[in-house]
Amino acid sequence: MKNALKIIGGLIIGIAAGLIIGAGCVVMFTDTSLTEYIDKFKSTEMSILPAAIIVSILSFAASLVILITAHEAGHLVCGLASGYKFVSFRIFNYTFIKIDGRIRVKRYAIAGTGGQCLMTPPDLPPEKMPVMLYNAGGVLANILLLAAAVPFLLHAENPLVKEAIALFCLTDLFLILINGVPMKVGGIGNDAYNMLHLRHNLKAKRAMAVQLRSNALIQEGVRPRDMPAEWFVADHDIDYSDPIEAAMPMIRASRLIDEMKWDEAYEEFDKLYSRKDVIIQLYVYEIACELAFCAMVTGRTDRAQSLIDDKLRKYIDTYRKMQSTKQRLLFAEALCIESDADKASAIYEGVKSSRDMYLLRGEVDSDLAVMEQIRNAAIYPLA
Predict the structure, then answer these.
(1) Inter-residue contact 205 to 196 (CB < 8 Å)
(2) What values do phi and psi take at 187, rounded to 5?
(3) SS3 sequence, 312-368?
(4) What are the CA-CA distances from residue 117 to residues 95, 97, 126, 180, 377 (Å)?
(5) pTM for the predicted model, two decimal places
(6) Which of 229, 249, 262 has the alpha carbon at shortest distance from 328?
(7) C-alpha span between 174 and 170 (Å, rounded)
(8) Per-residue model confidence as pLDDT tens digits over 243-252
(9) Which of 76, 78, 65, 82 is nearest to 98 (CA)?
(10) What is the pLDDT of residues 20-49, one digit of tens each?
(11) How far apart are CA 148 and CA 30, in angstroms?
């Protein structure tokens, strides 16, 4: 019932917003005054109103798909122009990734994002790595679309067509502002913020280069333990409120799990978790998951159970079908806390049989190897 009320309430708010936005567009882009618009609206036959509402909803949904796709395509084009190489291109939950010379489609999502274009930076020292055009590409694409749409808005005669184009323009303008004006949303910097931040922060630029390169390798099937060790040297004076910098100790700790150094990994994730008040929430959830896993496989089951509260359980359930790391966590929980060898075996076999469905091939190979190691350990024998 709560979900139904939220949907209905959101729909009502959306309709009201659409009518207000439509009025604003008419006043801004035509010679009609607000008073004249209200008088015309009152004289409009009520049969037209449902059509206007439907058009506003459909045009807004279509605008989001078109504009987010164009935004990520802008990153792709500008990245290629800067010397970057294509890795993956995601729109909502669908990711296009090149595997063995062919483009394949897989499902993957990240909370708070509608799309993502990931590329490998050129082989240059961090201080020379280009970051401006790559980050600006999305906003540039949206600006070009807005410039192309305005003439159609000014010359459209059909009111429903004008309404649809107006909503497209306003949605595009909104995306331009939230990506083109430097700001942080939920602790995460937008494109404009990253442009300025990376330009003057060598540590963050080096961290971004390592993250992009390790991401490319892991999607190609390389396990973290097999990546260059010099990438994972500990940095000092990390700004944990900066997601780019904070990701580095997380990657380093995750590599320790792949190396089966679980006590060391526990210590690293425990240190990270102690800074949860300054680290972005998405990272806190990831750190809690890995800390709980390390706690379970090192005999700290009470700590693991205290970490897996209702919020973390919901987070795990959200990503369990897309991320093998969540299946590894559930596998450890089945063995170490529930003492259910059959359930653990089913989780392991499920990940193994669906290996090719996962986006991060190196990650799933690592998780399968870790589960095999736990499975074969005398303290946790499987039936």
Answers:
(1) no
(2) 85, -5
(3) HHHHHHHHCCCCHHHHHHHHHHHHHCCCCHHHHHHHHHHHHHCHHHCCCHHHHHHHH
(4) 9, 10, 20, 17, 40
(5) 0.81
(6) 262
(7) 6
(8) 999 999 999 9
(9) 76
(10) 776 776 667 667 777 776 776 666 554 566
(11) 18
